[in-house]
Write a structure and sequence with these properties.
Blueprint (H helix, E strand, L loop, with lengths): L4 E6 L7 H16 L8 E2 L5 H4 L3 E2 L3 H8 L5 E2 L2 E8 L7 E7 L9 E5 L5 H6 L2 H15 L3 E6 H9 L11 E5 L13 E5 L3 E5 L10 H16 L10
Antiparallel strand pairs: 1-7, 1-8, 2-3, 4-5, 5-6, 6-7, 8-9, 9-11, 10-11
C-alpha cells in the first residue's frame, strides 16, 4: 500500500476582505516556491491535464483578486481557490483553500497534497520540506493549527475518536494562543515560528503508520500535547 500525505492549515471564522486574502495568498505561494522549484509554477483546473497546462496562474495578489471575483469562488462570505502544479499527470501537487469566511460551520483552511510517488514525492515528502510548508502556512495564513501527516495516520485517529479537536501529526504547528509546547519525548522536537507559534516535528525520518516505533512515538506525543491543552479548540469541526 502506498502511504499518501497531506499538509493542512485550519483556523476559526475570520472575516477578511478579498484584498487581505489575496495578499495572504501571494505571500504563501511566494514562501512555498522557496520549498520546491516545481511549486513556482501553478495552473488552474481544466477538462484534462493537457487543457489545464494551457491555464497558467501566476500567484500574485492581483491575480487572486480576479480569481476571488468569480462567483464560483465565493462561498460562506469568503473565497476559495483550487490550483495545481506538476510536470506530469503522475506527479501533480494540488492546493486548495478557503479564506475570509465568517461562517462558523465552514472552516477556513489551506490544504496541499503532494504526489503519492515519483521523484517529486521523494523530494518533498520529508520532514525538512514539510516543516517549511507548514511554516509557510503559519506565516501567511496565521492559522490556529497546522498538520502534515499521512492520510492513513489521520484515518486511524479518526476511527479511534482522537482527531475531532485536532491531533499531533508528523509535523504540527500550534499558534501561540493555543499555549506553550511542553518538553517532548525524543526524537520529537519543537521550534518557534517567529512570534506566531510553535512547530513540532515528530521524527526526522519519513513517518509511516507501518513503523511501530513511529506509531508508539506519535501516541506518546499525542498524550503530552493533549495534556498541555494544545489539542482543544472550539473552531475545529
Amino acid at each position: 500500500m502506498i502511504e499518501t500525505y497531506y499538509v493542512g492549515a485550519y483556523w476559526g471564522p475570520r472575516h477578511e476582505a478579498a484584498e487581505a486574502c489575496a495578499r495572504r495568498a501571494e505571500r504563501f505561494f511566494e514562501l512555498l516556491g522557496c520549498c520546491e522549484p516545481v511549486w513556482k509554477h501553478w495552473f488552474e483546473a481544466g477538462d484534462s491535464f493537457e487543457h489545464a497546462r494551457t491555464l497558467p496562474f501566476t500567484p500574485t495578489a492581483e491575480n487572486f483578486m480576479r480569481l476571488f471575483g468569480r462567483e464560483a469562488n465565493q462561498v460562506g462570505g469568503g473565497f476559495r481557490y483550487w490550483l495545481w502544479a506538476g510536470e506530469t499527470p503522475e506527479e501533480v501537487t494540488t492546493l486548495h483553500g478557503r479564506c475570509g469566511l465568517s461562517d462558523a460551520w465552514l472552516m477556513p483552511a489551506c490544504v496541499l497534497t503532494p504526489p503519492a510517488q515519483g521523484p517529486l514525492s521523494q523530494r518533498v515528502v520529508t520532514a525538512g520540506v514539510l516543516s517549511e510548508v507548514v511554516r509557510a502556512m503559519a506565516l501567511a495564513w496565521e492559522p490556529d493549527w497546522c498538520v502534515a501527516t499521512s492520510d492513513s495516520h489521520r484515518d486511524m485517529l479518526e476511527m479511534a475518536g482522537q482527531s475531532s479537536d485536532g491531533f499531533g501529526g508528523w509535523v504540527t504547528y500550534f499558534s501561540r494562543q493555543r499555549g506553550t509546547v511542553p518538553s517532548l519525548p525524543a526524537p520529537a522536537r519543537s521550534e518557534p515560528v517567529e512570534d506566531k507559534g510553535s512547530l513540532v516535528v515528530l521524527t526526522p525520518e519519513r513517518f509511516s503508520v507501518s513503523n511501530p516505533e513511529h506509531m508508539a512515538l506519535a501516541a506518546r506525543v499525542q498524550e503530552v500535547l493533549s495534556g498541555a491543552g494544545l489539542l482543544r479548540s472550539e473552531h475545529l469541526r
